[in-house]
Each structure stands twice: as structure tokens, then as C-alpha cells.
């Protein structure tokens, strides 16, 4: 367990009452519950920050795609189908002995 630091906080009456009741029911101290709540909130904050970074990256990528489309247009061709047709054509020529 890490070294603990003493911190004093002021709680609203209802917050203190609720924490005290939760501590009593779970057989834990109020301090332990507060540490757990803080730990969970900090972990949630980290996940929220990671999500925000992810969505910023997606937004950047979308803007990049828009700029590329604006500059170069949109390719309206099925490249896989074109490659298949070319391969079939080459095989046909080989089969006929034309290649």
C-alpha cells in the first residue's frame, strides 16, 4: 500500500451522513470509502481524457479526408473489381497462348 497523506475536507451534512452509513454497512472507514471514491473518479477522468483525445484524432482525420477530397476529388471506381478484371483478362490471354 502506498504512503497515505493526511487531508482535511469539509463535507455537507448529508454527504457525511451517507458516507458514515455506507461505512457502517460495509465495515469500512469513511476514509477508506473516500479514498475509493477519489480513486474511481480519477480513473474515470483518465478514461474521459483518453476518449476526448480519441475523438479529437477522429475529427482531425475527418478534416484531413475533407481536404484531400476537396483537392483531389473522389475516386468513384471499384479498384478491387478492376484488379480482378485485369487478372481475369491476363489469365485468359495466357490460356489462349497470347501472353
Describe the protein in words.
The protein has 99 residues and is mostly helical. It has one domain (13-96). The protein is 76% helix and 0% strand. The protein contains three helices and no strands. It starts with 12 loop residues before the first helix and ends with a helix. The model has no long low-confidence stretch (mean pLDDT 92).
Question: Tags for this entry?
Answer:
mainly alpha, 76% helix, elongated
The multimeric state of the shown protein is single chain
Total helix count? 3
How helical, in percent, are the residues?
Answer: over 70%
DSSP strand tally: 0
List segments where confidence is low: pLDDT < 50 over at least 5 consecutive residues.
none
Mean of residue pLDDT values: 92
* Count of domain modules: 1
- Percent of residues in beta strands? under 5%
Q: What's this entry about, in short?
A:
By secondary structure, the chain is mainly alpha-helical. It has helices spanning 13-26, 30-72, 79-96.
Task: Show the helix and strand layout.
Blueprint lengths: L12 H14 L3 H43 L6 H18 L3
